[in-house]
């Protein structure tokens, strides 16, 4: 949420970035007990800069400069990020593969086992080939 404000330990389960409440609570507990990890929501300035850089990155002449292989995951139930910028990037990149995970929320790495395990396997397989 834009301009969310400073860190708060409160959360609403339906708005978190994963469908795994246990993994979220584990991560949340670590954050509560470590001030260095506590972050608030996106500020207006951060969001504005993110929009500007997305526009720059997705310009055809800039995407064409990306010469490395890119593996890009999209969470089908992501309420934080819209896929349009990712799709535009992938269309223009030389070697970009998108893997959409329909039942996942934003934080795929914290998802339930049925989502997280295949995701991690694909990430590790990708890195083992480069």
TrEMBL record:
Tell me which SUPFAM superfamilies the record gives: alpha/beta-Hydrolases
Question: So which domain of life are we looking at?
Answer: Bacteria
- Gene3D superfamilies in the cross-refs: alpha/beta hydrolase
Query: What residue ranges carry the coiled-coil annotation?
Result: none
Spell out the InterPro entries in the cross-references: AB_hydrolase_fold (IPR029058), Hydrolase_4 (IPR022742)
Domain Serine aminopeptidase S33 positions = 14-112
Q: Name one Pfam family in it.
A: Hydrolase_4
* Name of the molecule in the record: Lysophospholipase L2
